[in-house]
Design goal:
- This protein has 2 domains: about 130 residues, Nucleotidyltransferase, domain 5; about 160 residues, Nucleotidyltransferase, domain 5 (2-Layer Sandwich).
- About 40% of the residues lie in helices and about 25% in strands.
- Strand 1 and strand 2 form a beta hairpin.
- It is globular and about 55 Å long.
């Protein structure tokens, strides 16, 4: 059985895993990020790999290679983390540094949403005749598109769903970027605006809504309507065969999927509504980035 290391680099945590060529997560380890300094951040990445190997019966020599998912823009050919909002890795040569440290030739780098999408496509779809979209709703909002078995990347920045403008239900009904209007950090701000309260997290909002607190319904309505607007853009532009949602906001609150479907249906014309029956939430939750990063190694062998 062939194996690879997958690394999912984030602003708050770094997850590493040992992945089989069939996508099985054999071992997983997680360490806290240290985005204060580029070298400290790299040390934490190394620690995540060392930890997952320590907890297993394998060595780095048993691995076919290392796959890395990094936020933001990535130069895949050179293995460079070009730009990120939440890390201090601007122009950081992550592939070269990992190659030097672990003495592993095969290092594959990609955007973290793309690696997560690859795992979802391989396990949930894998159909090379279809258009597949993975959408993440978490601290940010983004998506990745796999068309006929290949990523659609455009000039390198395709899939930035969070930058699409939507009508937010602020008093002036202004246009706002989807990510600013309805990603994780926006949820507490919506609660503050609507309920005149502070110190509420997104988790608090969803828990209280599910507990039956009626005053939270307007917050859920605003969020899901913004998401549906963004999703309708995808429906119109790509007419995908399948959409899978991931990211902590939606993965931890799966009941939201039916609300999104209802709102999306109000925007769609009948010929577009085939998508409603092929929308789902990831069953891999927070592991899809790790698994996808590892699977990308086998894709390059």
């Amino acid at each position: 059985m062939k194996k690879a290391i997958g690394i999912d680099v984030g602003g708050t945590k770094i997850a590493a895993g040992i992945i089989s060529e069939t996508g099985e997560l054999l071992k997983r380890a997680e360490v806290k990020s240290d985005p204060s300094d580029r070298e400290k951040m790299f040390i934490r990445v190394v620690e995540s790999v060392e930890q997952v190997l320590k907890d297993s019966t394998y060595s780095i020599g048993d691995m076919e290679g290392i796959g890395v998912g990094v936020p933001g823009k990535v130069d895949r050919d050179q293995g460079i983390a070009v730009f990120q909002n939440n890390l201090s890795w601007a122009r950081f040569p992550v592939a070269e540094r990992l190659r030097e440290h672990f003495q592993v030739e095969m290092i594959v780098t990609d955007n973290d949403v793309y690696t997560a999408a690859f795992a979802e496509w391989k396990t949930a779809c894998g159909n090379r005749d279809e258009t597949f979209v993975y959408i993440t709703i978490s601290t940010g909002i983004s998506c990745s598109i796999i068309h006929h078995g290949s990523f659609f990347r455009g000039a390198g920045f395709a899939g930035e769903l969070g930058l699409i403008p939507v009508f937010s239900k602020t008093p002036d009904m202004k246009l706002e970027r989807l990510e600013k209007a309805a990603a994780g950090p926006a949820i507490a701000k919506i609660a503050e605006r609507k309920l005149n309260t502070e110190d509420l997290s997104a988790k608090d909002v969803f828990e209280r809504h599910q507990a039956g607190a009626l005053e939270y319904q307007t917050i859920i309505d605003e969020l899901t309507d913004c998401w549906a607007q963004g999703l309708y853009s995808i429906s119109c532009l790509l007419d995908p065969h399948q959409v899978v949602f991931g990211g902590s906001v939606i993965a931890n609150n799966p009941y939201l999927l039916e609300v999104i479907k209802e709102k999306l249906k109000n925007y769609q014309i009948p010929v577009q509504q085939h998508l409603l029956s092929r929308m789902s939430i990831s069953t891999m939750k927070q592991d899809n980035g790790v698994v996808g990063a590892g699977l990308r190694v086998f894709d390059h062998i």
